[in-house]
Specification:
The chain has about 300 residues and is mainly α. α1 runs antiparallel to α2 and α1 runs parallel beside α3. About 15% of the residues are buried. Strands 1-2 form a two-stranded antiparallel ribbon. About 90% of the residues lie in helices and about 0% in strands. The chain is built from 6 helices and 2 strands; from the N terminus they run ββαααααα.
């Protein structure tokens, strides 16, 4: 059996077959790596956009709450004492809640959105690694094709040269593939660890905020419930009249009488008047009687005097 380059001629097809199998295996690995990177690029991009929108909505809610606080302060300044104090205390608590909401926005931005943004750069680097691996794999496939064509023509010297080129290309492809396997493995570990950290931070931040929110809302609720409605109502009623109105009102009430009282008073006055008239009439009649008696006495005296003269 004739040997070329330390190998038998009948062994070359089996060598090419094994190289082809290795190339096919590396193709499958590269395709899986590409799918893994593409999957992260797609879904991490979506998560980043949605979390960023969530943070923007929270920031807008904080801005609306600040406007609400300002309006409550402005309204409280126009109200009665108890309502004014209750609303002001409520606004103070609600304003304090917005400080915690601002902290929530800052933490979400730093602990959730920014780590997801970083995956844009990470994915770009992994795609560069994949590109280098694909370049090496394509070079290996090209050398393998050239070796197959040379073997078919069977010039011994060119065959040896092509096989040597194939070995170098295969070594280069193997090296880049191994490097890519390591980087993709690290990429997967980092992805899982980062996902755990990102979502853990998100839940922790939300729990801290809502825990504080429950505490502050409870205090705000108590401030509203502590408003004395009756006292403020008395203050409002008293504000409707001038300061001396009540005293004058009491005087008027004391002097004023009901229609029944006025009717009774009129009847009493009428009876008094009638009694007075009757008394006057009686007195006049008595005076007339006395005058008549006096006249009769005068006449008797005159008659007696005449009689004596005679």
């Amino acid at each position: 059996m004739m040997l070329l380059g330390g190998r038998g001629l009948d062994a070359r097809p089996s060598v090419l077959c094994r190289d082809g199998e290795k190339l096919c295996c590396r193709d499958n690995q590269t395709r899986q790596m590409q799918d893994a990177v593409s999957n992260v690029e797609k879904h991490f991009g979506e998560l980043c956009q949605i979390f960023a929108g969530y943070v923007r909505k929270t920031a807008r809610l904080r801005d609306k709450a600040d406007l609400l606080v300002n309006e409550i302060y402005a309204y409280a300044a126009t109200e009665t004492p108890n309502l004014k104090v209750g609303l002001k205390n409520f606004a103070d608590e609600f304003s304090r809640l917005q400080d915690y909401r601002q902290a929530e926005v800052d933490r979400l931005e730093a602990k959730v959105v920014e780590p997801l943004k970083c995956y844009g750069t990470i994915v770009k680097l992994k795609r560069d690694d994949l590109k280098a691996t694909l370049t090496a794999k394509n070079r290996e496939a090209k050398q393998l094709s050239q070796l197959e064509k040379t073997r078919q023509r069977n010039p011994s010297d060119l065959h040896i040269i092509a096989e040597s080129e194939l070995q170098r290309a295969t070594l280069d492809a193997t090296r880049t593939t191994r490097h890519l396997e390591e980087t993709i493995d690290n990429f997967e570990k980092k992805k899982i660890r980062d996902i755990k950290n990102i979502f853990s931070e998100f839940i922790t931040i939300e729990m801290l905020f809502h825990g504080k929110a429950l505490e502050i809302y409870t205090a705000a609720y108590q401030n509203i419930q502590n408003i004395d409605e009756n006292e403020d109502l008395e203050v409002f009623r008293s504000s409707l009249y001038p300061p001396d109105y009540q005293s004058r009102l009491d005087i008027v009430r004391a002097n004023s009488k009901s229609p029944l009282q006025r009717t009774g008073s009129s009847k009493s006055s009428l009876r008094t008047t009638q009694t007075s008239h009757r008394k006057v009439r009686k007195d006049e009649e008595e005076d007339e009687e006395e005058d008549e008696d006096d006249e009769e006495e005068d006449e008797e005296d005159e008659f007696d005097a005449t009689k004596e003269v005679r």
